[in-house]
Design a protein that fits this description.
mainly alpha
Length: 105
């Protein structure tokens, strides 16, 4: 696969109709906007891939989570962060969806 740096200008407005797809798109945008992360994502992002495989170390993870919390107006608790070693983009997307659901109830 050829790596590609996502930038806001080359991301579609929507990846699909589902809420999950829209959360995924916003997460990809946050990744693309993080200066200094140096994250290069493939066109077909494997959301089951470990974030370590994307080159995110523990410091970059903190920056990423703060940006995601800001983007979605959510806050993750310490238990979520302790699972960092096994986190994938899919788990992150689902966690954001769960937080948004909790906020709406």
């Amino acid at each position: 696969m050829t790596g590609m740096r996502f930038e806001r200008t080359n991301l579609p407005d929507s990846l699909g109709e589902s809420r999950h797809d829209n959360i995924k798109l916003r997460v990809l945008r946050v990744l693309a906007e993080q200066e200094g992360l140096g994250i290069h994502l493939d066109n077909d992002v494997d959301t089951g891939e470990s974030i370590y495989d994307l080159g995110i170390d523990s410091l970059k993870y903190v920056v990423l989570v703060l940006a995601i919390e800001d983007e979605f107006s959510v806050q993750f608790d310490d238990d979520f962060h302790s699972e960092f070693r096994v986190i994938t983009l899919e788990l992150l997307i689902n966690a954001i969806g769960d937080k948004l659901d909790t906020r709406q109830t």
